[in-house]
Fold:
Amino acid sequence: MSTTNLQQRLQGLLTHIQQGKIMDAMNEFYDADTVMQDNANPPTKGLAANIEREKQFLNGVKEWKGFHVTGSGVGENVTFYECVLEFIATNGQPVRMEQVAVAKWKNGKIVNERFYYD
Structure:
């Protein structure tokens, strides 16, 4: 996949997330065997398991305040983006998260993604 096509795929993913279409993004941009990992935690394997993990995260969100991409890049079958997520948790607590996501792609789908955050 060319870096131009990969840049377009990354932009499509980010647009989906910014529009709150996270589950649609999972189905469109992630491989059936995708592996996702937060920091040094054990990875979650397979699209179905990762969709379930994402649903659990979203169940803890009462209200989205923002998803702002502050930087991104594309290499040979790899992308990254740096972002700030802001939301109100179901307990009423405001949350501001800064994270970096690094993804490896194959055939236009993410096969491995790791999130780095504090």
Notes: The two ends are 32 Å apart (CA to CA). The longest helix spans residues 3-18. The helical segments are 3-18, 22-29, 47-59. The chain has a mean pLDDT of 96.
